[in-house]
Amino acid sequence: MATTPNPTVGRASNGVLDRPSKGALVALLGLGLILRAWLCFHDDGIYWPDEIYQSLEPAHRLVFGYGLIPWEFAEGARNWAFPGLVAAILKVAALVGGDHPRHYLIAIRLVFSAIGMVTAWGTYRLARSCGARPIGAALGAMFFALAPPAIYFAPRALSETASAAAVVFGFAWVLRPAARRRDVLVGVSLLGFSALLRLQNGIFCVGILGLLILRRRWRHAAMCTLVLAGWAVLYGALDWLTWGEWFHSAVAYLRFNVLEGKAAQWGESENTYYLRVLWTSMPIVAAIATPLALVAAVRSPGLFGIVLVYLLLHSLIGHKELRFVLPLLPLWFALAGAGFSWVASWVPLDARWPAMVAAVCSIVAATRFHQLTFGELGQYEHDRSRASAYDDFGPVNRLLLAAHDQADLCGIDIEAAHLAWTGGATYLHRNVPIFPRGTSMSAGYYNYVITFGHPIGWGRIVATQGALALVNLPRSTCVPDPSYRWKLP
């Protein structure tokens, strides 16, 4: 015998949020935006070099003609789609806000933070497509808006954060009830675009095709195949235009990471790493969202299965970082929203009360976004696990910004950090050589140094950041280094 859902779910059960619930959602999403914006102005640090050298630095080189080159862009192991997108943002920001690196860096961070909030809205839309009532979908959006790792990573120019918006909206369009051909076309195109930004998102593309086939939506599956083939051709063509061979970046990347296993040089972790780190980075949110997402598996097994496959495949690869699974977060929280709606339909309680409790818990969790340690984020676990992940190497980058303002700058040496953990030419924004630590001072290649302490007798201290100093050496010109290359050591 069919049962009737509990009518006490709340006024949101008619398909739209009531005014108090809508106001609460707007306020919570606004809080998420404020926290992200705060980071944009206060955190100059680096979580991992990829946020500079897989995005900002190649974009800077594309727009301004110079920048440090990592091995991926020396050997063609990265597609140019994501750096090209960042380059467009960089160019517009430089034109509108001036040519100072501080201005365009904040602009880029704000754009990426805005993408994060768009992703939160996409979480709401996907939850609705999975059958969530508005209050449950709002809960899923709130989880993403206030989850500490989602806030922490939001301003960083990473393909994982940028592509998450395309992923969640792609699924939201394809999985919406009574989806039409146009809906499928838009949704699959967004998933194809996400794979162009980040190759690993191709798992989602295969997953949505398999889901359409399992649901026997044959016409939509055929359309999906054609659209994804088009995006694959675009991926290969971009590689051909930039690297000279079709799918060059995909082949080089897979050869390096899968066949040769060279990514292991940056460390390997156990297969349960992602489950562990998702818990340590946001225990309160995970404790609430995970059981709800498991409940949703009964009603949305297809999407839940895609999430599990994506997580499993990443877990089988030795080198792991939390950022690799960031595109999963909005899908997971959307499932949590759907699970909440299903549970609330059968429990004799107004759904707004447990939603309020979850909101308060999420706000409490969000207050820790700038207190996260590298250990909680699963980074540098063996040597710096208790170190704060906030503004790491930020002092070095602020001294690079100070060096930009020195009119007589003709070369700079960075003794305080490996070049990979600095902002490079993107922060310096002066077409002068950037030398790694250990470069001879007597050779005369540079006239500024970023070093530890306040060295006596070296020259004039121009600026300081904690224990670090920008020092102007007593020379007005630099000797050209004929062997200098812009390659990142």
In short:
This protein is mainly alpha-helical and 489 residues long.
- How are helices and strands ordered from N to C? HHHHHHHHHHHHHHHHHHEHEEEE
Question: Outline, from the CA principal axes?
Answer: globular
The class by helix and strand makeup works out as mainly alpha
Overall mean confidence score, pLDDT? 93
Low-confidence stretches: 1-14
- Lateral arrangement of strands in the main beta sheet: 2-1-3-5-4
Which value, in Å, is the CA radius of gyration? 24 Å
N-to-C terminal Cα separation, in Å?
Answer: 69 Å
**Helicity level, as a percent range?**
55-70%
Number of domains: 2
- If helices are DSSP runs of H or I spanning 4 or more residues, what is the number of helices? 19
Characterize the main sheet. Answer: 5 strands, mixed
Q: How many β-strands, per DSSP?
A: 5
Strand content: under 5%
